[in-house]
């Protein structure tokens, strides 16, 4: 029982640190934030903070994983719905766009963290892309099973779709256009993909 209580306490402290870091990253940016400042926000010493996270990048990586896991979970919920595969593909693309744009709109400084993760922790990005790929494979297989899609190579097609929608999932791209412009472009990409996927 005491071991469990200690584990819960540790997890609570980690969550508090992540929340404080996220707030500071949003206000001052990832680059200008220090471990000492995060520790101060959590009313603890910097030495104590290092007991829970190795460094600032470790904190940023945990925050990035949380965001990407949420995006995957919402995508998975759409893909497993009992609706036409074409409709679900459309909703997945728009969901990715709205989630990403929402994250950037609420925290424009998120791009500093995204750049840091892309520069030093590509394993996190690759793990997300692999999970996204598997979800797309599941959707395409279901579309073939429902006799909606005509696909010769499902794995290759899933890769092509992931590549086509990459821009809608990058916070770094979000400052370029208003959400309405992004929505129009996403709709165009979906129409083009469905033109190649749907059976005649």
Commentary on this structure:
The protein is mostly helical. The chain folds into 2 domains: 1-53, Homeodomain-like (Arc Repressor Mutant, subunit A, Orthogonal Bundle), CATH 1.10.10.60; 56-197, Tetracycline Repressor, domain 2 (Orthogonal Bundle), CATH 1.10.357.10. 74% of the residues lie in helices and 0% in strands. It contains 9 helices and no strands. It has helices at residues 2-28, 35-41, 46-49, 56-79, 85-106, 110-120, 122-145, 154-164, 179-197. Helix 1 crosses helix 2 (35-41), helix 1 (2-28) packs across helix 4 (56-79) and helix 5 packs antiparallel against helix 9 (179-197). It is elongated and about 65 Å long. The model is unreliable at 1-7 (pLDDT under 50).
Brief overview:
This protein is an all-alpha fold and 200 residues long.
Shape: elongated
Class based on secondary structure composition and strand pairing: mainly alpha
* Whole-angstrom Rg: 20 Å
Name the beta content range: under 5%
CATH topology of the largest domain: Tetracycline Repressor, domain 2
Number of domains: 2
Number of strands: 0
What level of helicity do the residues show? over 70%
Mean pLDDT metric: 94
Number of helices, counting only DSSP H or I runs of 4 residues or more: 9
What is the CATH C-level name of the largest domain? Mainly Alpha
Q: Tell me which CATH architecture of the largest domain applies here.
A: Orthogonal Bundle
**Termini Cα gap:** 62 Å
Biggest β-sheet strands, sense, barrel: none
Low-confidence region ranges: 1-7
Elements, N to C (H/E):
HHHHHHHHH
What is the CATH superfamily classification of the largest domain? Answer: Tetracycline Repressor, domain 2
């Amino acid at each position: 029982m005491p071991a469990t209580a200690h584990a819960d306490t540790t997890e609570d402290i980690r969550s508090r640190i992540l929340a404080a870091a996220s707030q500071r990253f949003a206000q001052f940016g990832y680059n200008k934030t220090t471990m000492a400042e995060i520790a101060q926000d959590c009313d603890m010493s910097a030495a104590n903070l290092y007991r829970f996270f190795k460094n600032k990048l470790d904190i940023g990586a945990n925050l990035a994983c949380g965001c990407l896991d949420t995006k995957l979970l919402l995508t998975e919920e759409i893909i497993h719905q009992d609706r036409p595969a074409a409709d679900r593909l459309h909703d997945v693309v728009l969901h990715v766009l709205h989630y990403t744009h929402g994250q950037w709109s609420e925290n424009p400084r998120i791009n500093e963290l995204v750049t840091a993760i892309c520069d030093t922790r590509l394993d996190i990005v690759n793990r997300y892309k692999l999970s996204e790929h598997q979800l797309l494979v599941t959707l395409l297989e279901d579309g073939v099973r429902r006799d909606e899609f005509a696909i010769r190579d499902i794995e290759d097609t899933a890769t092509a779709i992931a590549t086509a929608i990459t821009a809608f999932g990058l916070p770094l791209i979000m400052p370029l256009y208003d959400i309405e412009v992004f929505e129009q472009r996403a709709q165009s990409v979906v129409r083009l993909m469905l033109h190649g996927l749907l059976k005649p």
